[in-house]
């Protein structure tokens, strides 16, 4: 069974109603990322940061996977599909995908401020005073700007095994995630689904400049 490796970004979740950070009307419009997505921002105003992620966590209860997510799950019938996602939502899992690696963390998890490896499921709001059993404040299980990406080594290993590599809904501006494409084997067929990316990532016939759902429907027809 061929290995289909997927690098997904905010564009695939946008069709479910989740705002992206980098669009003109995205979440960054009203906030400085230094204040909301950095260790320094959290140290300066932890409740502001917690409130921001509480809003995002609540939004997950109001949205559902879209057709692009569903097609990726359906492809598991004929391919060994692994998804490396920059998204912190759980829409891939809710669509049924069984192999999902979150590079930048997950909204529905938390961890103590002093222990990156102790990850706790967390569904509701997270506030100051929410502690682990040792009395340590909990923070979102999110990789903030300036922090290491713990799963990057595993992601490189997965990308290196690809027979088919799909880039979908990502600006390819966030590193080290964007660099994963450099690790795919020479024999690998690369596809891109994004209306804005340049053609430099693959041959033009494999670049579908359309929405995530439209592109997944086209790709699915080719792969069947």
What does this structure look like?
The chain is of the alpha/beta class and 224 residues long. The protein has 2 domains: 134 residues, TPP-binding domain (Rossmann fold); 79 residues, SIR2/SIRT2 'Small Domain' (2-Layer Sandwich). Helix content is 28%, strand content 19%. The protein contains 8 helices and 9 strands. The strands form 2 sheets. The protein has a 6-stranded parallel β-sheet with strand order 3-2-1-7-8-9, with helices on both faces. A 3-stranded antiparallel β-sheet has the order 5-4-6, covered by helices on one side. The longest helix has 15 residues. It is elongated and about 55 Å long. The mean pLDDT is 91.
What is the straight-line distance between the termini? 13 Å
CATH architecture of the largest domain: 3-Layer(aba) Sandwich
Number of strands: 9
The oligomeric status of these chains comes to single chain
CATH class of the largest domain: Alpha Beta
**Structural class computed from helices and strand pairing:** alpha/beta
What does the main sheet amount to?
6 strands, parallel
* Overall average residue pLDDT: 91
At CATH level 3, the topology of the largest domain is: Rossmann fold
Estimated radius of gyration: 18 Å
Q: What is the H/E string? A: EHHHHHEHEEEEHEEEH
Individual helix count? 8
Note poorly predicted spans: none
Range of strand content: 15-25%
Gross geometry: elongated
